[in-house]
TrEMBL record:
<feature type="domain" description="C-methyltransferase">
    <location>
        <begin position="238"/>
        <end position="395"/>
    </location>
</feature>
<dbReference type="Pfam" id="PF13489">
    <property type="entry name" value="Methyltransf_23"/>
</dbReference>
<dbReference type="Pfam" id="PF08484">
    <property type="entry name" value="Methyltransf_14"/>
</dbReference>
<dbReference type="InterPro" id="IPR013691">
    <property type="entry name" value="MeTrfase_14"/>
</dbReference>
<dbReference type="Pfam" id="PF08421">
    <property type="entry name" value="Methyltransf_13"/>
</dbReference>
<dbReference type="InterPro" id="IPR029063">
    <property type="entry name" value="SAM-dependent_MTases_sf"/>
</dbReference>
<protein>
    <submittedName>
        <fullName>Class I SAM-dependent methyltransferase</fullName>
    </submittedName>
</protein>
<dbReference type="GO" id="GO:0008168">
    <property type="term" value="F:methyltransferase activity"/>
</dbReference>
<keyword id="KW-0489">Methyltransferase</keyword>
<keyword id="KW-0808">Transferase</keyword>
<dbReference type="InterPro" id="IPR013630">
    <property type="entry name" value="Methyltransf_Zn-bd_dom_put"/>
</dbReference>
<feature type="domain" description="Methyltransferase putative zinc binding">
    <location>
        <begin position="2"/>
        <end position="58"/>
    </location>
</feature>
<dbReference type="GO" id="GO:0032259">
    <property type="term" value="P:methylation"/>
</dbReference>
<dbReference type="InterPro" id="IPR038576">
    <property type="entry name" value="Methyltransf_Zn-bd_dom_put_sf"/>
</dbReference>
Amino acid sequence: MCGGTLKKWCDLGRQPVSQSFRAPDSTTEEFFFDLAVGLCTSCTLVQHVAEVPRELMFRDNYPYRSSESAFMRRHFEQVASDLLATELSGPDPFAVEIGCNDGIMLRTINEAGVRHLGVDPSLQAAEVARATGIRVLADFFEEATALAVRQEHGPADLIYSANTISHIPYLDSVFRGVAALLAPNGVFVFEDRYLGDILDNAYFDQIYDEHFYLLTVRSVQAVAARLGLELVHAERIPVHGGSIRYTVALPGARVPSPAVAELVAAERDRGLDRAEQLETLSTRIEEIRTDLVRLLRDLRANGKRVVGYGATAKSATVTNYCGIDQSLVEFVCDSTKGKHGLLTPGMHLPVRPIEAFSDPYPDYALLFAWNHAAEIMAKEQAFREQGGRWILYVPKVHVV
């Protein structure tokens, strides 16, 4: 982004596209890349060393659906309600969402009668959103897209995005597009996983192809300033194990809150801008791999059945980095219908419906969807009642 020097501090080896689930009889060659992460020694932006072509990740049949998690549905409904009461309370407001997926956030906006537009490259996700009355442009968001949207719909009072901005390597085009599309007093509100929480909790599986950037307040502030915008607020939120919601505006449009300077100072004190501090995560990752593989091998050697729970994108990092195949985990169950009957990327574990989890229950369940642990464990209480145990691997390998 700034032309500075990128210093590599973490390498998770050969990895597949995290959402490239395959049919068992597929003969097409699987795409792999080297998953390494570096720190810009100038602007402190943390990013992948190698870029995966966006068309391979965000395809027309991209399988993830935001609304399939009850927790995320409640989260986005609350976000929409808050934005309706604040940024969208004026006369005839217009809201744009970057990466709207199946439209779960925009449903509340639409029900309030507010003009809106979702932008998402997945045709299938767009069709799901449209079926609920959401207006969607099936395309990637970049500067040219933003200019076309403004010409057709006028300036946006709000541009919102959740867990998407870190996916986009060409941040320069995105931020320039935001600057071109925003109304004079409009805001760009986006939330994304936080490098500080990833480091503190060894959330190494948050590093995968889609998460091209691991953001901090300081790096977002630097990118915004470089591209004609200003970071005016930042707040920590508990989503996905720890995220930050950023509020960006045109320079001088809003008075920056004290939270921005406070969080930047805290990051500097914690060393989030120093490669040697970030490298401590690599040591913890290696320890997790050793402990997890040892545990799985011991369980299988003792005749215990182990099943994966949640065929998440981040599970691709865990299974491929740790070499977890069917000799260690029988299959992975998941609620996403579009993944059923397919094989996970790289390690080719079968994906089965959630109903397979209890038919019969395994002895142990490796919880890949740990960020929804409370929701999942409450739903699967019968598993615990019949003696089942959950395996978690962050912040360290443990059984509950």
